[in-house]
């Protein structure tokens, strides 16, 4: 039995999609619609070995999703003939309420809308995708899978911020964590790579993409993660600062008169590797460092040091780890970053195998390394499809 699911990841000006089997996790079609609402949008639609790219004017998400349906009609199998069982939506913030995937109804939509105060950049865009998809596919179940859900098991000692009580009770201030589908999938795959069930192992996952986070997964359950109330906390990222002294915000406000909206934007969109090097693409930054660019070299050092600190603290939080798994764009593709992160963790039990690291793994530690270091390609869409299929069959 196959279970094709259309997975939709709707951003503010883009829609990523995959038609993927929720059992085998094989994606038959994938695509990306970019620059929705601008003068010209680009659609990239890949099916089997074919790739089609064209430009079209798509004023809004409704037009984007209609273009998606047309792309399926024109290339390969129309969606209506695929035996689609559901449309699954990635939703960034599930707050305290959504700790599992849910079938979307009006009430769920209202709740996702209310959570927009916690994720103003993401939830409204996710919601727009859902609204349009419900109209376009009225007979199919629509499922929401939340980025925060996997971290719902993080205990109080790790999710409580020591801030005034009403911030916490009335304004939802706590650590939620993100990239949950990736941390869930990769930690499970890491256990499989060790030949164990997830319940038998402790795994640290370093998801290093444009956004980046680390999680500590104890016997299959997330017990800590580096992102917090929002995706701003934790690691140095492409354009996000990660951890800073919060008083920097008040200092800069007093010094420059910058509004909180400006400071929010500066920390989310103009900080991180971009602020340190002028670039966000890790390949370019590595090349610049190799070529002797001091800013790039220092930025790489800052980036990797922050990851190393988190990994070290999570080994302590877990009371020992069986594996460290690297994933996402940088984690999967940069031997340089992995080596810099792991180089001084020998005392904590990680012995890197340089050749295996250069070759890309999956195992990149030596056979006598107490902690196994791994490279595991993430599959967020696959995990969303899997969770959707499991929910609909339960
Ligand atoms: P997103 O968070 O947008 O999904 P990705 O997981 O696709 O991001 O990761 C994007 C990042 O991966 C970019 O910074 C890119 O430079 C980096 N990356 C991709 N390939 C390589 C590579 N070969 N070496 C170093 N970095 C890479």
TrEMBL record:
The answer to whether the entry has keyword Transport is: no
So where's the catalytic machinery, residue-wise?
A: 147
Binding of substrate occurs at 90
Q: Which domain of life is it from?
A: Bacteria
Q: List residues binding Mg(2+).
A: 9, 380
| EC primary class | transferase
Which sequence ranges are marked TM in the entry? Answer: none
What InterPro entries would the database entry show? Ac/propionate_kinase, Aliphatic_acid_kin_short-chain, Aliphatic_acid_kinase_CS, ATPase_NBD
Classification via PROSITE patterns: ACETATE_KINASE_1, ACETATE_KINASE_2
Cofactor remark from the record: Mg(2+). Can also accept Mn(2+).
Reactions catalysed: acetate + ATP = acetyl phosphate + ADP
Q: Where in the cell is it found?
A: Cytoplasm
State its Enzyme Commission number(s).
Answer: 2.7.2.1
An example Gene Ontology CC term for this record: cytoplasm
For this UniProt record, give its keywords in alphabetical order, as a comma-separated list.
Answer: ATP-binding, Cytoplasm, Kinase, Magnesium, Metal-binding, Nucleotide-binding, Transferase
Pfam family name, one: Acetate_kinase
Name the needed cofactors.
Mg(2+); Mn(2+)
Single GO BP term = acetate metabolic process
Q: In which pathway does it act?
A: Metabolic intermediate biosynthesis; acetyl-CoA biosynthesis; acetyl-CoA from acetate: step 1/2
Q: Where is this site: Transition state stabilizer?
A: 179, 240
Q: Which residues of the sequence carry a binding annotation for ATP?
A: 16, 207-211, 281-283, 329-333
Subunit architecture: Homodimer.
Tell me the protein family, please: Belongs to the acetokinase family.
Query: Which NCBIfam families does this entry report, sorted A to Z?
Result: ackA
State the protein's purpose: Catalyzes the formation of acetyl phosphate from acetate and ATP. Can also catalyze the reverse reaction.
Q: What is this protein called?
A: Acetate kinase
């Amino acid at each position: 039995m196959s279970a094709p699911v259309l997975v939709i990841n709707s951003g503010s000006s883009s829609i990523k999609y995959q038609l993927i089997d929720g059992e085998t996790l094989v994606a038959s079609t994938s695509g990306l619609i970019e620059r929705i609402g601008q003068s010209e949008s680009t659609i990239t639609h890949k099916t089997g070995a074919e790739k089609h790219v064209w430009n079209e004017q798509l004023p809004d998400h409704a037009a984007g999703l209609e273009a998606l349906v047309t792309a399926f009609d024109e290339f390969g199998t129309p969606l209506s003939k695929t035996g689609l069982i559901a449309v699954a939506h990635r939703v960034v913030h599930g707050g305290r309420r959504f700790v599992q995937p849910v079938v979307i109804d009006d009430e769920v939509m209202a709740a996702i809308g209310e959570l927009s105060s916690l994720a103003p950049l993401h939830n409204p865009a996710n919601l727009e995708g859902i609204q349009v998809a419900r109209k376009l596919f009225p007979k199919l179940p629509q499922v929401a899978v939340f980025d925060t859900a996997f971290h719902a098991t993080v205990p109080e000692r790790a999710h409580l911020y020591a801030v005034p009580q009403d911030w916490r009770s009335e304004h939802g201030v706590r650590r939620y964590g993100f990239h949950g589908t990736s941390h869930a999938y990769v930690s499970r795959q890491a256990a499989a790579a060790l030949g164990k069930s997830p319940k038998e192992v402790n795994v640290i996952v370093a998801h290093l993409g444009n956004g980046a986070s680390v999680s500590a997964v104890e016997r299959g359950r997330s017990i800590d993660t580096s992102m917090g109330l929002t995706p701003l906390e934790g690691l140095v990222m492409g354009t996000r600062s990660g951890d800073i002294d919060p008083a920097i915000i008040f200092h800069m406000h007093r010094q420059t008169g910058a509004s909180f909206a400006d400071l929010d934007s500066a920390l989310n969109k103009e900080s991180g590797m971009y602020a340190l090097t002028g670039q966000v693409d890790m390949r370019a930054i590595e090349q610049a460092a190799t070529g002797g660019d001091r800013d790039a070299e220092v930025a790489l050092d800052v980036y990797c040091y922050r990851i190393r600190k988190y990994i070290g603290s999570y080994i302590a939080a877990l009371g020992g780890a069986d594996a460290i798994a690297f994933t996402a764009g940088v984690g999967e593709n940069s031997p340089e970053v992995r080596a810099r992160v792991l180089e001084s963790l020998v005392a904590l039990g990680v012995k890197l195998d340089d050749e295996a690291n250069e070759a890309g793994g999956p195992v990149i530690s030596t056979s006598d390394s107490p902690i196994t270091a791994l490279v595991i390609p993430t599959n967020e869409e696959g995990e969303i499809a899997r969770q959707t299929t499991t929910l609909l069959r339960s």
